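Hello forum,

I keep getting stuck at the same step: I have a sequence, I want structure tokens, and every attempt I make locally crashes halfway through. Rather than fight my setup again tonight, could one of you with a working pipeline run this one for me? It's a single chain of 197 residues.
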Amino acid sequence: MARLLRLLGLSTLLGMYLLVAAPGRAEAAPDPVVASVMSVGATALPLAITGIMWGTGRGADEGVRLDVGMIALGLGSIVGPSAGQIYAHGGVDAFLTFLLRAVTGAVMLTGVGFKLRGAENKQLMGSALAITGAVPTGLLAIYDMYAASVSAREAGYREGYGQVVIPPDLQELAVCGPIPCPVGDRTLLAARGPLGR
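Reply #2:
Ran it on my machine without issues. Output:
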């Protein structure tokens, strides 16, 4: 339990840093690594809490442990993967996968509830619902974890933070064409900047 509290404390400090200190870095574009780590961490931590709640002590037989585990399972499987997408300005794609995960996650959570606490005749149906909801929820979560870094890169390009290095020879070619610039026109190249703008 002490390890869990330390892990929660460290994740809280990391979240505070990302919310407070990271935006102050000269309005930089979202970092693809941070976006991926946020998605993976916001998914893995609640799922680990569910595993701890249900795997230790009386497990899911105790009411509070079942409730905390179900809440953590819902947060980790539905909301968690979207954390990196939200940070990375994911847009419509992130919203759509969140909505789909909310629907499939609700089916999964209903099935888990029936399996763990349902009557004898409802437990088999609970297993089927849990599997039916868990497969698409997991696939959508994996997609969002991957797409968080892609969204961060795209946001950087949209906001003008993409790295484009144009060698001087190509700059000259863009301004003067295939014929080398006369010496006097090099000032024109310097005045226009990259790609003759």
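The chain has eight helices and no strands. If your local run keeps crashing, start a new thread with the error log.
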